[in-house]
Amino acid sequence: MSLKQVSIFLLMLFGVTGCVSLATLVPPIDSQTVILMKAKKITSIPTPNGPLAVTEQMLKNGRQLYLRRCTSCHTVVPIRDHTIKQWQNILPDMFEEAKLDASKQRDVRAYVLVSRLLLPPKSAK
Amino acid sequence: MKNDFATKISLLSHLFVVKKALLILLLILLATPAVQAGSRAFAYTYEVTTQPKGALEYEQWTTWKADKNSDRSFDRLDFRHELEYGVTDNWQVAFYVSDWRYETGKSTSTDGARWRGMAIETIYKLSDPTADALGTALYGEVKFGPDLMALEGKVLLQKNIYKMIIAYNAVIEAEWETGDNASRKGVLQQTFALSYNVMPSFSFGGEFLHEVEFAQWAETGLNVLYLGPTVSYRSKRGWWATMTTLWQVSEVASEPNIQTRLLVGIDF
What we know:
The complex is a heterodimer.
Chain A: H1 3-18, H2 22-25, H3 31-39, E1 44-47, E2 50-53, H4 56-68, H5 84-98, H6 102-118
Antiparallel strand pairs in A: 1-2
Chain B: H1 2-30, E1 56-68, E2 71-86, E3 91-104, E4 112-127, E5 135-144, E6 148-161, E7 164-177, E8 183-199, E9 202-215, E10 219-220, E11 224-234, E12 239-248, E13 256-267
Antiparallel strand pairs in B: 1-2, 1-13, 2-3, 3-4, 4-5, 5-6, 6-7, 7-8, 8-9, 9-10, 9-11, 11-12, 12-13
């Protein structure tokens, strides 16, 4: 493979990757989120210790932690890539790897699960 | 002709030994118990991301350099045993417990194993490569040994775009050697790296390295350029491995034509 072919491949890869916005992968928390939560009647999320009431601040903190801490080991994983059930299995392992304390775990869990609940369910393949 | 053939056979046998050693190392690591994980996508280029607060990691570095145009018999293995610790979420310190090397060849001062020294390193993350427009960090290192003293500073830049990591390092190093090879020199280096995260545990890409030395901080040396592929694997069992092989794309006879670096990290 020549240097020219490698360059073309890398530019194509960069083009495809660069087209995906961060907001699509990791939805932001804004007034629209709060409206959607009310419309879908989402006030709490399931946790190992029972339902947990969520706040807007908790979700904002959770998103920042998701972007800053979870991407230390790997690139960003789109929220839509897993179902609620899959996320509930994945999160405990990731919390351990990222060394998140209990309050940070709570915020990330709230953000991931609420964001996933607000997205359309994964279509069956 | 005969010499060329002998050199190729020698290189192939070295490659076989290195491959075998790497395979054994990976088999040992596969058998290690479950622990925590952090990782690096590149072997030569540093990333902006640091260890999380309270995280401790052991990193084993192995760098193999060989085949100079001016010395076909040249062979060098550098080993580094490093401990990294996250002081805060943005500040990491590291201690190179030991740097040592094994080398042979006509251009080496002494054949065999030699302890080089130890070092202290620190990285401070200023901005995040995913959450912010550009990830930035500052790196500082002090290395000292029986015949060596070196200071190194780096500016680390990184941007993560979805599954792609793009990183750039600008490096300046001042080195003082005493003893038989007494010298004083400066080194300017820059590295550029790109990697694609195929899945959370596996990424591949390439690295580019450019280096120029200044003997006595006066004479400008030749530009040495290297280019090659990199692969990285992060296990769910708490270890990771990253390997880059670089080929010299410039024609500096006194520098190795090939170098390979394997990093293995085990988190506690």
